[in-house]
Each structure stands twice: as structure tokens, then as C-alpha cells.
Amino acid sequence: MKKSVLLAACFAFAASVFAQKSQIKAAVNYLNDKNYPKAKEAIDAASIDESTKGEIRTWYIRSTVYLAMQQDPSGEGKDFYKDAGVSLKKIIELQSDFEKTDIDKRLFAVAVYYYNDGLTAFKNNNYDKCFENFGNVVSIFNTDASKRFMGRKDFDTVARQSALYQGYSAYYNKNYEAALPFIEKAKNDPIVSSANTFLILAEIYGLRKDAASQQKALADGRKAYPQDKSLQNAEINYYILSGKSAELVVKLEDAIRNDNNNPDLLYILGTAYNQMANPKDKDGKDLAKPTNFTELFDRAEIAFKAALSASPDHLDANYNTGALYFNRAVGINDKMNTITGTTAADLKKYDALKAERNEWFGKALPFLEKTIAIYDGKLGTMKPEDKDTYVNAITSAKTIYGSLNKTDKFMEMKKKQEAVK
């Protein structure tokens, strides 16, 4: 998410701009003395007085008072800027070109306050307030049918980000229908589009049971962000959960026939077979293994190894080959844990499973160690998702070393694990 826009503008007011009536004059005097409570009291009275509420100067001074209160240290966490915004809109209603440069500067300041409060609401999971605040940013930008701020790239960017956040806030609030138009628009906007935009869009279409649109969102996302792991996995999972695994495999194998040394295509094919062998539901929970598990497992292994033959340092292929073997070992370990008897037959069965488990652990280690070694050279420059993979590789290697009673290596992995937390 974007960082808060920092606002450092100060708004000066020249008391000589207008001839003053009593309340307005009092407000200006209090303002100059920084007696904001009294300035607010005086200008609020002027804004409802019949003799002054229709005058531009009233609302101009009112916007000045409220912005001054907002920018004062005592205004931290307050929302005086909202009343400043109301006053500025009133000025535009009365005379749209009045002190336009100054008024636009103030409107942008108000928009920035809404933006920052929107971010705070988003971080606090207050999605209703988040949606409202970002909507106000967009509303200010659209003043005079978007003509007022035409050519203002800074405001244009903030407005586009705000519209995206409206979509995000509606989505996380589970108001998917409200989120959809915002996310649809954002996916085509180069300023705010991201892989996450397509992932959310695909999920919304999935919830609507619109398979065609869901598949298109994933395909468009993969085309726009071909290296994004989350989109790769989401597309593969879509085909599997839709009962279209064979279609996916045919699609990948056709592509590989035309580019048989492409490590990325081979890696994705391996991932597809792996997910078919170890299916999960939409919430990531394990489903029953298919009857052809061994065949699918072997095909995943072949594809991953082909990817590594083409590119030995391919991070994803190294990690997922290690994970493929590691998870096979974990499955066997689960069987070991079901043996509670102490007969000779029970112990023989336990020892046989233990030997099989350790064999798979031994196969996993070189690939996990390679993954860790590659990431060790990238510390400080890793993306969050890469850090997750790095930690998972370390954790898996530590588990293996512990099971194999390799204490020194176990402690080495433990130290690495603690260093990246």
C-alpha cells in the first residue's frame, strides 16, 4: 500500500482582503492571535447569519480557520479539515473562479487529509470509514466534472489510488458487488494496477459463479504479470478446482513443445502436477489424495527436474522440488504417528516407515539447501513473498536435521530462522 501523502503547506491569510463585518472581523483577529476556539466560534456564527452566510468572504475565512486548526499541533487526530472542505465547496458554488489557485491548493490539502485518514481506517480494518474517506478524495478531484484539476498529475494519481482503495475496502468488507466496478477499472489503469488487482477480481467473479470472467481475469493477470507466483498458483488452482486439470496440462505441454527448454514453463507444469497430486480446497485445506497420486507425483518431479536442468539456480524450482519431497516425507511421518502399539510387528512397521521418511527427507535436503544458499546472497533485497519462501525452506531444513539427529545443522538453521524474524 502507498505511504501517506505528507502535507506541509501553510495557509496565510491577509486580513485586508475584505471589509469586515463584526463577526468576520472578530474571527480574523482571533485567527491572527491563534486563538482558534474563539475564531471558530465567531466564523461559525457568521456562516449562519442571514447577513453574511451568502458572502464568499465568510466561507473563505471559515476555510482558513478550520485549516489552521487542523494544522496546529492540537489538531492532530481531529477532522477540522472536513469543515474546511465544506466551506471551500460553498465558495465554488458562489463563484467557481474565486481565487482559484488558492482555493485549489486548499482543496488538495483537504483531499490529502481524507486520503491519510482513509489509510488509517484501512489499516484499522474500518472499511466503511475507509470507503467514505477515499470517496471524498475522488469527489473533490471530480469538482466541476473533473475539469477543475485537469493537468494536475499529483492529484490525478492520488484520486486513482483512492478509487482503488474504495474497491479494496469494499472487498475486505465483503461487499463484493460494490468492489467490482472499482477493481475492474483499476486493472486497466497502469498507475494503480497490480497482480493483486487481478487476483481480487478473479476471486469476486468466482464468488459470483462467473467462471468465464474468473478465467479471463486470471489469464489477463498472467499476461500482465507473468512472473507473479500468486497469479501462477491461482490460475493452476482454478483449473484444478474447476475440473479442468487436463486442459491446463495440455495447454502447458503444448507451450513446452514450442519452447522445451523454458524453465518457467517447466516449473509451472511441475506445480500443476504437484497441486493435482496434493489438492487443496479454496481455503487451502488438504483434500483427499487422488487415486493416481503416484503418477502425478512422478510427473511433478520430472517437470521440476527438467526446469532445474534448464536453469540450475531457478529458485522456485529448487524450493518446490524440495517441498515436494519434504511433504511426501511428512505424509509418511503422519502414518508413523498412528502406530501406537509396541508389538514386534508394530515396531517393524514403524521402523520401515521411518526409513522411508528419512529417504524422502534426504532427497529434499539438497534442494532446500540450494534455495537457502541462493537467498542468503539476497538478504536485504528480498520481497515479502521471497522472505516467506526463504523462511519456509529454513524451517523445513531444520525439521529434517532434527529428525536425522544432525544437531549442528539443526542449530545452524535455528539461528538463520531467528535472524530473519
Spell out the key features of this protein:
421 residues, mainly alpha, Methane Monooxygenase Hydroxylase, Chain G, domain 1, 72% helix, 0% strand
Structural overview:
With about 425 residues, this protein is mainly α. The protein has a domain at about 315-420: Methane Monooxygenase Hydroxylase, Chain G, domain 1 (Up-down Bundle). Helix content is about 70%, strand content about 0%. The chain has helices at about 20-30, 35-50, 55-70, 80-95, 100-125, 125-140, 155-170, 175-185, 195-205, 210-225, 230-240, 245-260, 265-275, 295-310, 315-335, 345-375, 385-405, 405-420. About 40% of the residues are buried. Residues about 1-20 have low confidence and may be disordered.
Oligomer: single chain
Give the total of beta strands: 0
The CATH architecture of the domain at 313-421 comes to: Up-down Bundle
For this structure, what is the CATH class of the domain at 313-421? Mainly Alpha
One letter per element, helices H and strands E, the order comes to: HHHHHHHHHHHHHHHHHH
Which spans of ≥5 residues are poorly predicted at pLDDT below 50? 1-20
Gyration radius from CA atoms, angstroms: 31 Å
